[in-house]
Amino acid sequence: MTTNVPTVSFTDAGFVSPSEASVLAGVQADMNAAFGGNLNPSLSTPQGQLATSWSAIIGYANDLFCNLTQQVDPAYSSGRMQDAIARIYFLERDPGASTVVSATCTGVAGTEIPQSALAVATDGNFYYAVDGGTIGISGTVVLSFACSVIGPIACPTGTLTMIYQAIPGWDAVTNLSDGVVGHDVESRQDFEARRAASVAINSIGSLPTILGAVLDVDGVLDAYVTENSTGSPLTIGGYELDPYSVYVAAVGGTNDDVAQAIWRKKAPGCAYNGNTTVIVEDTRSGYVTPYPSYDVTFERPDALPIYFSVELATNAQVPSNAISLIKEAIIAAFNGQDGGQRARIGSTIYATRFIAPVAALGTWMQIVSLLIGSDNTLGAEFTADISGTTMDVSAVASGTLEVGQFISGPNIEEGTYIIALGTGSGGTGTYELSLSQTVASEDMTGAAANQTSVSVNIDQVPTVSSVNIVVVIS
Predict the structure, then answer these.
(1) Of 18, 158, 269, 288, which one's alpha carbon is 20 to 30 angstroms from that of 85?
(2) Residue 462: its pLDDT value, please?
């Protein structure tokens, strides 16, 4: 049998499918020949309708085959095919991750807080201690807590405040910064990035090796690895590295698991950097107790809140819940839930990353501006007290205060920003704030969401909270 329908082909550019117009022409030619010629080619005739249906079926089959050939390439694979490619590297898709938050536990010095000790956030979610710890002589210890619910559960500053089960000597718990939001099933892009990083896992001594091993640790949400190969201190991404040392930052996972992953893959004799030290024993065959032990140090990065300022042009189609929809779209994009790249340690976050997700909310969306900011670029450093919604600035160390600046300090409620000038006009004087509170005189800072990009240091993990997103419809 012969046919006039053009076939698919493989070229140097890959799979090539014929156009549906040429497929339709081929089907019509086959039908005309089968019926002896002189068939009316009009698509409104019965034979025209039949030719159109057959062409659509052939085109759909070609599309499916085209999609299958694309799935063989890791750069385009998704779903079941991406899972299959990853299994070649002995990887499984992360079924989801919990929100992780650093919490300050206060109590009697020497009190042991065991692993899995429970605390409760104001939204009712339970958080368990990832690692145990001992309250120090200062009366505090900072521990990592993970939400018992898998997925993107927000844990803003000051919301993890209740101890679920009493432990003698443990008096209070609170988080002084936002939690690093978890995620649902690992996205196509994040899974591919982890697969690419895992290629180096079987080697030893290279930075990709260490990164791949740490990212493969159960519960790790993000990681960053770099080194200083010089004989002098070197500042990279806002952090000073010791001479001849490796730097590893990790969010999530237990301290022991992260330290083991680093120690197995780092080069011999290499020094460390960071704020967390774990003793690792070498229990490999050939050694007997007491096993050789080593101090492994790495960084548990601080949270860096990212501020957003969105201005929209008003119109009759703007829905009543527009502000909440915009905040949800920004948070989803920030965490990579829209299929794009999520904000990460040591990255540059661009304001333009969030324009498309916000614009996709509907034709009513008319974005005048969308800007971001962080405390890495301060607009002002000053001393002030707060009574109600009035902030009284007594001294300015640097910069200028202005409307729209987010205010940060040891006792400031998250999401506090300047909404109007009082007697102050950039320096000392009064300013009206968005949130009512009482704060004694202390050092504070102001940072505005007025930039097109934000650089995240390598000892910082970017976080997002709805209270730090200001939407103005004018």
Answers:
(1) 18
(2) 94
